[in-house]
């Protein structure tokens, strides 16, 4: 029996010693502060490391986490200045800076921060309309942080950042905003389409203008070259005719050959014989009479024995066609001159247009 009692006493002593050791030794983790009270009053704040307490006299009141904390508050209904109710979610980033104040100045600093955030948010949003509320998040965050930092400073809490997580207007207002945004996008799309069409038409008009200018330049160059060729051909033909020295008999014969071509065609119902036809026929008849007289003698009155001699004299003598010498102009110079004339005409037309607008 005595052994049992001794064993029980020994176990109780061991338990008492273990309890004393546990109450005496306190290991505080990093970034944690421990508030210690002695006989019910604040004694000291334990930092990270190993500490010794007086058993049954010193008591740990609270463990305060010194790291930055993040807390998200549920949506709160807030009324704007234009009497619209919006729901706003907030996120608070805070950090305890004074563990003693955070323990003794307020019973629950998280709840205090939440309620202070709600009241401050209602005051700030109440002075803004819906559009300002949706577009002034940074301003609202700054105002909330300033008010919360001032109020929580005596609690030993520093508010580092305040964010509006979501701003939800009423469903009817959201539908109206979506319609407004859709109409704005349609308007911008119409403006862009009109600008694109305008640019397209401008470019098309510029292309047509350049095309017409180039076509006109080509036609001008072709006309110049054609006229120069025709002038050269006329000069050569006239020169050949002058060198050939045709007599009236040959001209009368050519005239008679041309008459059937004049009368040819279904549209030529009536054609007029010119008065020169009689002279041509007379010349043609004299040609035959000259050939008849030539049988009797080469020096007859109707003969034309002097014609070869006159032709030879004209070929030997320098001839004058009576036409000015044709000098072919360089196509590049002609084209440059045509462009200058076209540019001058364009400037005159634009000046006339501006003058008409000014009047």
UniProtKB/TrEMBL annotation:
<comment type="similarity">
    <text>Belongs to the band 7/mec-2 family.</text>
</comment>
<keyword id="KW-1133">Transmembrane helix</keyword>
<dbReference type="InterPro" id="IPR018080">
    <property type="entry name" value="Band_7/stomatin-like_CS"/>
</dbReference>
<dbReference type="InterPro" id="IPR001107">
    <property type="entry name" value="Band_7"/>
</dbReference>
<feature type="region of interest" description="Disordered">
    <location>
        <begin position="295"/>
        <end position="359"/>
    </location>
</feature>
<feature type="compositionally biased region" description="Basic and acidic residues">
    <location>
        <begin position="333"/>
        <end position="359"/>
    </location>
</feature>
<feature type="compositionally biased region" description="Basic and acidic residues">
    <location>
        <begin position="306"/>
        <end position="319"/>
    </location>
</feature>
<keyword id="KW-0472">Membrane</keyword>
<feature type="domain" description="Band 7">
    <location>
        <begin position="23"/>
        <end position="181"/>
    </location>
</feature>
<feature type="transmembrane region" description="Helical">
    <location>
        <begin position="6"/>
        <end position="25"/>
    </location>
</feature>
<dbReference type="InterPro" id="IPR001972">
    <property type="entry name" value="Stomatin_HflK_fam"/>
</dbReference>
<protein>
    <submittedName>
        <fullName>SPFH domain-containing protein</fullName>
    </submittedName>
</protein>
<dbReference type="InterPro" id="IPR050710">
    <property type="entry name" value="Band7/mec-2_domain"/>
</dbReference>
<dbReference type="InterPro" id="IPR036013">
    <property type="entry name" value="Band_7/SPFH_dom_sf"/>
</dbReference>
<keyword id="KW-0812">Transmembrane</keyword>
<dbReference type="Pfam" id="PF01145">
    <property type="entry name" value="Band_7"/>
</dbReference>
<feature type="compositionally biased region" description="Gly residues">
    <location>
        <begin position="295"/>
        <end position="305"/>
    </location>
</feature>
